[in-house]
Amino acid sequence: MNIFVGAKEMGKTETENWDGTEVVEQEVKRPGKGPKKVLVISGVMCGGIAFLLWATFGFPRKLKNPRIFKEKTCAWNATLCPQGWNRIHNKCFFLSEQEKTWRDSQANCMAYHGTLVIFSSQNEVDILTYYMGPSSYWIGLKKQNASKHWIWANGDALSNRFTINGNEKCAFIFKKGISSANCKDMKKYICSREGVCP
């Protein structure tokens, strides 16, 4: 049987056990409880703000990259090309005036949503050589690593439609045909991309 005799003074309660020993009870403050509350509250607020932004603006609407132009189908003679580009059927071609390495040329074409030129017909080759003048231009053909096979910039293998002279890894076009050179050589380049419907 416990008999408690207590007196309160400034947050302490003193009691005695039945055997006469004194028991002292104190209120203990736990450190770190305040910062945890702030962290939880700020996390909830940030989540709420993020949800409101998502709901208001509806992003991400789709997981695809946004397109500058909406994809429409139209006749090949109705397609448009960016200013300074030439249209051949439904494709757009850009002949550079600057010289770059093959890799830098490809990067520049990609900045305009295209690649180094990929020929789909001999007709395209013939028309472009008419516009080229005496210069040589990088095209989108390259040998991958030690492979002897030519690969277009879009990943397709080269068919036997074109003959490529030389033993280097990057292809270029000039008035007399298609040849190869060291990829670090400086040449002008031709970009290609799909035309867009108005």
From TrEMBL:
InterPro entries: C-type_lectin-like, C-type_lectin-like/link_sf, C-type_lectin/matrix_domain, CTDL_fold, NKR-like_CTLD
Membrane topology: Single-pass type II membrane protein
Transmembrane parts of this sequence: 38-59
Record localization: Cell membrane
GO CC annotation: plasma membrane
Segments forming domain C-type lectin: 88-192
Domain of life: Eukaryota
Entry keyword set: Lectin, Membrane, Transmembrane, Transmembrane helix
Name the record gives this protein: C-type lectin domain family 2 member A
Organism from which the protein derives: Molossus molossus (Pallas' mastiff bat)
